[in-house]
Amino acid sequence: MTETVTISLDAMGGDHGPDVVVPAALGALKRNPDLRLILVGQEEPLREALARHGAQQQERLRVHPATQVVGMDEAPSHALRTKKDSSMRSSIQLVKEGEADASISAGNTGALMATARYVLKTLPGIDRPAIMSTIPTLGGYVHMLDLGANVDCTAEHLFQFAVMGSVCAEAIDGVSHPRVGLLNVGEEEIKGNDQVKRACQMLTDSPLNYVGYVEGDGVFKGMADVVVCDGFVGNVALKSSEGVAGLISHYMRAEFQRNWFTRLAGLVALPVLRSLRRRIDPRQYNGASLLGLRGIVLKSHGGADAFAFGRAIETAVLEVRKGVPSMIDQRLESLLAAKETQ
Fold this sequence. Notes:
This is Phosphate acyltransferase. It is an enzyme of class 2 (transferase). It catalyses: a fatty acyl-[ACP] + phosphate = an acyl phosphate + holo-[ACP]. Keywords: Acyltransferase, Cytoplasm, Lipid biosynthesis, Lipid metabolism, Phospholipid biosynthesis, Phospholipid metabolism, Transferase. By secondary structure, the chain is of the alpha/beta class. The chain folds into two domains: 1-126 and 292-341, Isopropylmalate Dehydrogenase (3-Layer(aba) Sandwich); 132-282, Isopropylmalate Dehydrogenase, CATH 3.40.718.10. The chain is 50% helix and 17% strand. An eleven-stranded mixed β-sheet has the order 3-2-1-4-11-10-5-6-9-7-8, sandwiched between helices. A hairpin with a 2-residue loop joins strand 5 and strand 6 (140-145). The protein is globular, with a radius of gyration of 21 Å. It starts with a strand and ends with a helix.
């Protein structure tokens, strides 16, 4: 018998709030009979959104009131100091109090990271949580972290990210000894800054399946199962890849609409184009994990639609069932113990 999973949703976060979160929640409940969801936010808008979809509160779907909302451009420190009854904070608080197994928000990334770190705290041996998401590759997808939580990182931080990414990939994908690579400006040992070179040495000496440096194009070739970098580089790489995907899509539409002949060719190629769109659709990969916390928190894209937010819910369910935080904790403990005996 499958154990019931309860997830709290920041229903007011993101660009669309309840208009996206409520239909995504209803869809997830249909797909997962052992799932319970808590909609956290202002009661009136949530009741109205439920009514629009012909739904109401029940045993598997309830509303938890929160009076405040964190703005998408609000400073994390301000949100942390003045928004103690926000939907974001209340949703994470439910995880801390054991009422929920995980929390998801499409809200302000900086505020979410700061609030999650303040409320849940980090695991022993983890200095900073990191944001990890999946990116499509030639052979499937790769887990990449950090994608923006830590602009400046030491070699020790990169090493911790590698451990967390390796454990998460092993838990989610069932891959034994995932290949871990460091994102760098070249594959040669002499290339890279001091932090990357020191992290490379630490990973080489560790029991992780470290495969060395990975260049930007190597990420999409699938040269590793986990790619590690600092948040500055990771966020630039992520946004660049999204921009290139959008550019290719724009040019393809423009070319197929150029004249009657290209329109006809577009109709013939429609099944292939739809298949291609599904494979590179970023909505398929929505739901970035905030790794290193004493609980499970996921960040959905701020502009996510119901399908994309539903994907984040599915990822959270998987992380809960696999017990990702406890797996990271155990792996780090064993690595640190082995290091002390050396």
